[in-house]
Inverse folding.
C-alpha cells in the first residue's frame, strides 16, 4: 500500500472491457448494446490515462499522448453514439422494434 | 505511527470506486430495465471520471463528465424514449446465446489478465503523476495545439461529419 | 545397231499409235504404217543379225588369240579338255566346258548386249526396263519381223474391205511391237508386261469379228486360259526374285542359278510355276484348249500369232530362263522331268486330235500344239539348240501352211474341208504346191527343214540326259512324226484331191462385199447383201497372197541348211558350214548352263525317215486308195469310243467349262455367298451390335452412373458444406461479434501465452 500500482488500473480496465464485451454480444436491445460499447470505450480510456501516468515517471515516451488520446476517444465515442442512435431510430421507424435478433436480413 | 500516506488513501479511494464501477457495469448488462441500465451507466461513467482524477488527469475527468454523462447518456435516454423501449421491465433483453458471449468475455479476461499480470506485475505508478510537471489542462492544451494539432482538427471534422450524418440518417422525409 | 536394237520394237509401236489415230484417213487403206514399220524393223533385224554374227566371230577370234598367247606364255591348260580360255578376265568362273568326244571344244564367251534404264525405285529395289540381246533374241527378231511382214502383206488381200480394217492393222502392229519387246526383255518384269500385252493383242485379234458370239467366246477363252497360266508366271518370277537376291534381271538370275547360288528346291518350284505359264501360252496339255478355238480369228492372225510367234513365247521364255530350268529340273542328269513329260504328252495328244478335225485350220492348230510339244520336249531333254532350231523352221512352214489354208478358204469362203473343199489342186495349183512343200517340211522329210530340226530333237532325246537317256521320249517323238505325216496327208487329200464338194452356184465372189464374214466353221451369207453372181469355180488367189507363200515355202526348203550337223555322214562338210545356227545363236555366257549337244546319229535319222514314209504310206492307202477298215467306228465299239474321245477333245472342254467353272458358278458360289451373308456379315453386324450395346452399357453405367455421380456428388458436397457453413451467416451482428471476440481471445492467448 505504498503506492498505486499500474496493474490495478489495468485490471479495472480489463474487467470493464470484458463486461462491455458481454453486453455487446448478449443483449437484444440495440440501445443496451450501445451502452455496452460505451463501457468498452471507457475501459480503454482508463487504460490510456493509466499508461500516461505511468510514463510520466519514466524517461522516454510521451506521457501526454495517453491523455490526449483519451480525449480523442471521448470525442469519437460521442460522435459514434450520435450516429448509432440515428441508425437505431431508423431501424425502429422501419420495424417498430429494436430487437437485434430480428435484424438478420443478411442471413445467408 | 506515521500518518497513513497518500498512497494508502489513494488505494482505498481507488478500490472503493472500482468496486462501485464494476458492480454498476455488471448491472448495466444484466438489468432488464433499459432506463435502469442507463442510470447504471451513469454510475460507471462517473466512476471513470473519479479514476481520472486519481491519476492527476483532471481535464480529462472534467471532459468525461461533461461529454459522457452530460451528452452521451442524455442522448441514449432520448434514443430509448424515441424507440419506445418499454419503460419498465422489458420482455427479455438477453440474447439466446448469451452464454457464448459470457464464455467469450471470460476467455478474453483470462487472456488479458494473464498477460497483464505477466507484464506489469508490481509496477508502481510514480508519486507525482502530473505529466510534464504542470497541471493537466496546461499539458493537454500544449499538446493538442502543438504536437497533436492535426488529429485535433481531424476530430473536429469527424464530429461535424457525424453530426451531419446523424441528421441525414434520422431525417424524416 | 546392236546397241540400238531397242528401236526395233518401237517402230511397230509407233505404227500402232499412228494407225489407230490416222489410219482411216490414209488413202488406200491403213496398212501402210504397219507395213512400213514392220518392213523397216525387218531390215533392221537383218542388220542386227549380221552384226551379231560379227560379234560372235570377234569373240571367238579373241578367245583363240588369248589361248595362243597363254600357251606361248607357258601357261599350260590344267586339264586336257580345257581348250580356250574365257574371253573376259572373269577367270573365277569356270569357262564353259564343251568337251565332246571328237569335237573341239568351243569355249568362248559371247557377251550379250544389254542396256537398261531405271524406271523407278522403291524400297531399295530398282525396276528397270531394258534390252537384252543375245543369239536367241537375234534369231527371234528375224523370225518375228519376217513373218509379221509377210502377214501384213498377205492381209492387205485377205481382209480387204473388212469392217474393221484399220483396227486390225493397228493391233497387228501392236502385237508385233509387244512380241519384239518380249524377245528383248531384259528382266522378268518386262517379260511379264510383254507377255500380257501379247495376250491382249491375241484376244483382240481372235475376236476381230466379235459380232458373232463364237468368236468373242473364243477370244475370252484364249485370254482366260492364258491367265490361268500367268498365275504360274507371276509366282515363278516372285520366287526367283527373292531367291536370287532381289533381282529381276534375267542374266543375273540365270548366272546365279548356274553357279548354284540358288537352292535346288527354289529352282524346282520356280521351274514348275513357270511351266504352268508355258502350258497356257504355248498350248501344252492341259491348258491347250484355247488354241484350236482361237482359229476363230482371221487366218493371217492365226498364222502370225498362233503358229509362229505368240505361242512360241512360252518356249522362248523357257529358253531365256534355261539356267533356272536346267538346274531346277536337273535336265542334264535325269531321264525324265516335268518339261519333257508335258511336251511328250502334248506331242501325242495334239497329233491324235488332228485326225478328227473337219476344219482345215483346226487341223493346223492341233498340229501346232503337237509341234510345240516337240519344242518343249526338246527343251526338257536338254537339246536347247534343237528346240530353237525347230522353232525357227516350224515358224516358217507352219505360217506357210496357215497362209496356204487361208488362200484356199479365201477362194471357197469356208474352212470346212469335208463339206466345201476337195479337188482344189486343179483350181489352185500354186497354193497346192506351196502347201505340199510346207507339209512335207512339217513331216520331216530330208532335205527339207523339218527333217533337220525334228531329227536333232530325237537325237537329243536319245543321247542326252542321265542314266538311260530320255529314250521314252525318242519313242514319243517318233510316234509323233508318224502321226504328223498321216494327218497332214489326210488334210491334203481332203482339201486338194478328190471331187470338189463345194457349192458352185451359190458363191459370192465380190470382194467388195465387206460383210462376208469369214467365220471358222460355216458360211454366213444371210446377212450379206450381195449380188448373187453365179461364179463357176474357185480360182487362185492374187499375188499378195501368193508371194508370201512362195517365200515361206522356199525358206522351208532351205532353212534346214542352217544347222547342218558335222559328224557322221556330214563330216565332209567344212566347219564353217556346219552347225551355223548353233554357233551363232546359242548363248555362250555365264547365264547359260553348260549343256551337251547331240550328234548326228544315222540310225535315228534313218529310223525317222522310215517312220515318216510309213505314215505317209498308211494315210495314202487309207485316203487315196480307200484301203483299210473304213467305217470301223460304226462297227467297232472300241473304235467308236476312241473316235468319240477324240472328237470331244478328250473331254477337256467339258472338264473346264462344266465341271470346274460350273461348280464354281453353282455350288461353290452359293456356298461362298452363304458364308459371306451369314458368317462374315454376321461378324460385321455382330461387331456393330456389340459396339452399340457396349456403348449403351458404358453410357448407362459409367457415364451416368459413375461420372455423373462424381460430378453431381461434387456439386452436392459443395451444396452440403455450403448449407453447413451458411448457418454461420445468421445475419446477426452480435453473432459475428461473438466469433470475432472469441477468435481474438484465442489468438491472443496463443500469441501471448504460448509464444
Amino acid at each position: 500500500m505504498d503506492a498505486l500500482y499500474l496493474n490495478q488500473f489495468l485490471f479495472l480496465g480489463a474487467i470493464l472491457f470484458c463486461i462491455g464485451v458481454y453486453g455487446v454480444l448478449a443483449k437484444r436491445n440495440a440501445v443496451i448494446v450501445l451502452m455496452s460499447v460505451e463501457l468498452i470505450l471507457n475501459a480503454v480510456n482508463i487504460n490510456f490515462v493509466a499508461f500516461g501516468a505511468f510514463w510520466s515517471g519514466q524517461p522516454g515516451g510521451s506521457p501526454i499522448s495517453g491523455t490526449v488520446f483519451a480525449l480523442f476517444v471521448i470525442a469519437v465515442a460521442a460522435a459514434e453514439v450520435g450516429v448509432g442512435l440515428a441508425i437505431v431510430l431508423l431501424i425502429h421507424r422501419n420495424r417498430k422494434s429494436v430487437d437485434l435478433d430480428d435484424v438478420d436480413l443478411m442471413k445467408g | 505511527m506515521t500518518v497513513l500516506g497518500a498512497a494508502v488513501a489513494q488505494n482505498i479511494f481507488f478500490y472503493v470506486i472500482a468496486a462501485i464501477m464494476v458492480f454498476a457495469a455488471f448491472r448495466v448488462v444484466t438489468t432488464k430495465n433499459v432506463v435502469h441500465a442507463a442510470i447504471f451507466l451513469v454510475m460507471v461513467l462517473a466512476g471513470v471520471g473519479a479514476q481520472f482524477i486519481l491519476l492527476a488527469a483532471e481535464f480529462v475527468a472534467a471532459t468525461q463528465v461533461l461529454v459522457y454523462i452530460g451528452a452521451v447518456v442524455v442522448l441514449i435516454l432520448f434514443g430509448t424514449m424515441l424507440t419506445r423501449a418499454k419503460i419498465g421491465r422489458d420482455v427479455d433483453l438477453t440474447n439466446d446465446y448469451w452464454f457464448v458471449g459470457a464464455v467469450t468475455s471470460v476467455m478474453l479476461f483470462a487472456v488479458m489478465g494473464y498477460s497483464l499480470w505477466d507484464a506489469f506485475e508490481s509496477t508502481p505508478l510514480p508519486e507525482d503523476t502530473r505529466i510534464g510537471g504542470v497541471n493537466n489542462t496546461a499539458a493537454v492544451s500544449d499538446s493538442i495545439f502543438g504536437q497533436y494539432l492535426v488529429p485535433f482538427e481531424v476530430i473536429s471534422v469527424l464530429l461535424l461529419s457525424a453530426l451531419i450524418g446523424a441528421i441525414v440518417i434520422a431525417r424524416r422525409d | 545397231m546392236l546397241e540400238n536394237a531397242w528401236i526395233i520394237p518401237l517402230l511397230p509401236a509407233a505404227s500402232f499409235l499412228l494407225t489407230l489415230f490416222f489410219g482411216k484417213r490414209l488413202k488406200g487403206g491403213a496398212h501402210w504404217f504397219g507395213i512400213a514399220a514392220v518392213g523397216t524393223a525387218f531390215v533392221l533385224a537383218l542388220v542386227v543379225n549380221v552384226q551379231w554374227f560379227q560379234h560372235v566371230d570377234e569373240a571367238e577370234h579373241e578367245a583363240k588369240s588369248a589361248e595362243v598367247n597363254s600357251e606361248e606364255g607357258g601357261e599350260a591348260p590344267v586339264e586336257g579338255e580345257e581348250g580356250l580360255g574365257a574371253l573376259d578376265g572373269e577367270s573365277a568362273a569356270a569357262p564353259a566346258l564343251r568337251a565332246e568326244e571328237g569335237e573341239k571344244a568351243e569355249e568362248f564367251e559371247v557377251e550379250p548386249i544389254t542396256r537398261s534404264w531405271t524406271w523407278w525405285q522403291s524400297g531399295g529395289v530398282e525396276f528397270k526396263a531394258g534390252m537384252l540381246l543375245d543369239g536367241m533374241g537375234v534369231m527371234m527378231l528375224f523370225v518375228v519381223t519376217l513373218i509379221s511382214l509377210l502377214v501384213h502383206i498377205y492381209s492387205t488381200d485377205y481382209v480387204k474391205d473388212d469392217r474393221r480394217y484399220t483396227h486390225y492393222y493397228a493391233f497387228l502392229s501392236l502385237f508385233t511391237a509387244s512380241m519384239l519387246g518380249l524377245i528383248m526383255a531384259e528382266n522378268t518384269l518386262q517379260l511379264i508386261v510383254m507377255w500380257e500385252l501379247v495376250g491382249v493383242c491375241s484376244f483382240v485379234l481372235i475376236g476381230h469379228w466379235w459380232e458373232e458370239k463364237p468368236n468373242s467366246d473364243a477370244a475370252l477363252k484364249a485370254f482366260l486360259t492364258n491367265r490361268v497360266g500367268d498365275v504360274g508366271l507371276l509366282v515363278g518370277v516372285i520366287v526367283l526374285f527373292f531367291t536370287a537376291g532381289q533381282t529381276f534381271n534375267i542374266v543375273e538370275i540365270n548366272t546365279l542359278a548356274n553357279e548354284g547360288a540358288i537352292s535346288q528346291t527354289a529352282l524346282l518350284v520356280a521351274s514348275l510355276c513357270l511351266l504352268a505359264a508355258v502350258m497356257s501360252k504355248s498350248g501344252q496339255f492341259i491348258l491347250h484348249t484355247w488354241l484350236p478355238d482361237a482359229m476363230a480369228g482371221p487366218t493371217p492372225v492365226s498364222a502370225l500369232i498362233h503358229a509362229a510367234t505368240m505361242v512360241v513365247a512360252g518356249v522362248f521364255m523357257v529358253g531365256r530362263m534355261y539356267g533356272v530350268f536346267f538346274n531346277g529340273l536337273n535336265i542334264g542328269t535325269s531321264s525324265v522331268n516335268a518339261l519333257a513329260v508335258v511336251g511328250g504328252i502334248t506331242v501325242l495328244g495334239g497329233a491324235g486330235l488332228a485326225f478328227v478335225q473337219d476344219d482345215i485350220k483346226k487341223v493346223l492348230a492341233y498340229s501346232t500344239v503337237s509341234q510345240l510339244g516337240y519344242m518343249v520336249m526338246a527343251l526338257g531333254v536338254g537339246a536347247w539348240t534343237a528346240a530353237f532350231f525347230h522353232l525357227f523352221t516350224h515358224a516358217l512352214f507352219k505360217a506357210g501352211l496357215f497362209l496356204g489354208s487361208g488362200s484356199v478358204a479365201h477362194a471357197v469362203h469356208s474352212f470346212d474341208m469335208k463339206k466345201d473343199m476337195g479337188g482344189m489342186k486343179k483350181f489352185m495349183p500354186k497354193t497346192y504346191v506351196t502347201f505340199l512343200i510346207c507339209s512335207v517340211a512339217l513331216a520331216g522329210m530330208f532335205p527339207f527343214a523339218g527333217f533337220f530340226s525334228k531329227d536333232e530333237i530325237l537325237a537329243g532325246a536319245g543321247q542326252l540326259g542321265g542314266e538311260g537317256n530320255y529314250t521314252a521320249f525318242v519313242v514319243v517323238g517318233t510316234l509323233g512324226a508318224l502321226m504328223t505325216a498321216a494327218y497332214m496327208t489326210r488334210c491334203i487329200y481332203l482339201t486338194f484331191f478328190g471331187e470338189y464338194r463345194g457349192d458352185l452356184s451359190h458363191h459370192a465372189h465380190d470382194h467388195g462385199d465387206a460383210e462376208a464374214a469369214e467365220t471358222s466353221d460355216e458360211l454366213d451369207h444371210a446377212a450379206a447383201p450381195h449380188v448373187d453372181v453365179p461364179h463357176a469355180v474357185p480360182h487362185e488367189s492374187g499375188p499378195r497372197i501368193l508371194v508370201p507363200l512362195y517365200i515361206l515355202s522356199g525358206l522351208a526348203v532351205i532353212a534346214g541348211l542352217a544347222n547342218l550337223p558335222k559328224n557322221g555322214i556330214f563330216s565332209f562338210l567344212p566347219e564353217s558350214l556346219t552347225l551355223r545356227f548353233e554357233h551363232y545363236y546359242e548363248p555362250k555366257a555365264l547365264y547359260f548352263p553348260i549343256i551337251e549337244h547331240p550328234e548326228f546319229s544315222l540310225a535315228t535319222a534313218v529310223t525317222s525317215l522310215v517312220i515318216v514314209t510309213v505314215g505317209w504310206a498308211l494315210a495314202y492307202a487309207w485316203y487315196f486308195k480307200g484301203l483299210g477298215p473304213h467305217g470301223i467306228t460304226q462297227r467297232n465299239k472300241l473304235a467308236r469310243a476312241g473316235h468319240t474321245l477324240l472328237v470331244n477333245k478328250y473331254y477337256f472342254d467339258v472338264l473346264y467349262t462344266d465341271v470346274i467353272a460350273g461348280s464354281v458358278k453353282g455350288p461353290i458360289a452359293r456356298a461362298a455367298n452363304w458364308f459371306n451373308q451369314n458368317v462374315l456379315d454376321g461378324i460385321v453386324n455382330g461387331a456393330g451390335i456389340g459396339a452399340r450395346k457396349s456403348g449403351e452399357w458404358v453410357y448407362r453405367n459409367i457415364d451416368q452412373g459413375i461420372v455423373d455421380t462424381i460430378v453431381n456428388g461434387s456439386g452436392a458436397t459443395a451444396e452440403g458444406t455450403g448449407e453447413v457453413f451458411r448457418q454461420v451467416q445468421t445475419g446477426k451482428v452480435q453473432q459475428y461479434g461473438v466469433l470475432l471476440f472469441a477468435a481474438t481471445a484465442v489468438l491472443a492467448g496463443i500469441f501471448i501465452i504460448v509464444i
Summary: The CA atoms of residues 9 and 50 of chain A lie 6 Å apart. The domain at 6-100 of chain A is CATH 1.10.287.3510 (Helix Hairpins).
